[in-house]
User: What shape does this take?
Amino acid sequence: MKYKCLVFDHDDTTVNSTATIHYPSFVEYMNKYRPDVQYSLEEYVRYNFDPGVITFFKDMCQMSDEELKQEEIFWYNFAKNHYADAFPGIKEIMDRQKAEGGYVVVVSHSYSENILKDYAHNDLPEPDMIFGWEQPLEERKPSPIPIYKIMEKYDLKAEDILMIDDLKPGLDMAKAAGIDFAAACWCFDIPENEKHMRENATYLCKCVADLEKIQWGE
Assistant: This one.
């Protein structure tokens, strides 16, 4: 294997969840509490890419701190009652990574319990570490702190780790930590997002098989 540790984002990288869980939750919440705020799925994905979910909610949706807390509870309850399907080929990559003595870690903006629920639903191997939304704000993506903790726990160097993510916060985290980054562009086809990834990522993956080729050269 090329990288001893594969660090996976969860939503729209490992599982197809924004279109099936997160966006429907957002629409349902807004229809109920803020019917004046309407965004399409493509807009929702684009703005989660940049400027990021918190800025999107606060500045673009103009949600107060209290509304942010309310929406987070609504989203949490919605997500825990839904499952997301893994993209074809992800399980095989994770299984092989673990079988060959490598590590699989998750750094995500979803809660760890919902990540584990999706992993069990898809029969994915249990991650070696998970850094989810329950982490302190200063330790969530794009903070490089999760990468530093991975390095410390497993005695890894920057060149041993590959981050796989579909959004800019993951890319920014990888850059801050000095590790390689594979852009997961297999879920949505949004030209602006892909252009940024193509210009800034170490690798650009249009399909899951591209990630397998990076890791094993096959």
